[in-house]
Description:
Elements: H1 3-25, H2 30-37, H3 46-67, H4 87-103, H5 107-112, H6 119-138
Helix pairs in contact: 2-4
Amino acid sequence: MSGVGVKTAAGYIAGLLFGLGLAISGMTDPARVLGFLDIAGAWDPTLMFVLGGAVVTTFIGFRLVFARGKPLFAGGFQLPSKQELDAKLLGGAALFGIGWGLSGYCPGPAIASVGGLTMPLFAMLVAMGAGWFLARELSP
């Protein structure tokens, strides 16, 4: 298998593990996310524990990966160089949060839920696709 094929296979395996993690943790159910946001009602802390587990896993994983010096399937790491906050970043984060709060889906769980497509999920996916298209068109 060529280097590109191994890299692609690794990407698919990582995506599969991510999707399985979302499904097992219940994060493909928008009611979980909306329950987390309902702090004055029937609050559901599940999302907090899933995010906490992701932060711990990432914290350990980054240290292990960076200790290698370079990735397994690439010549070097591709890390963002921009470190300042700007209006585009803050605006995008705000739109993401508003969309997540209104729909109960963020992009990962939305795509993982496509097998059980509902009208609200379809509307969210269309809006997400339109947002990607508009962002690409409006970017310099």
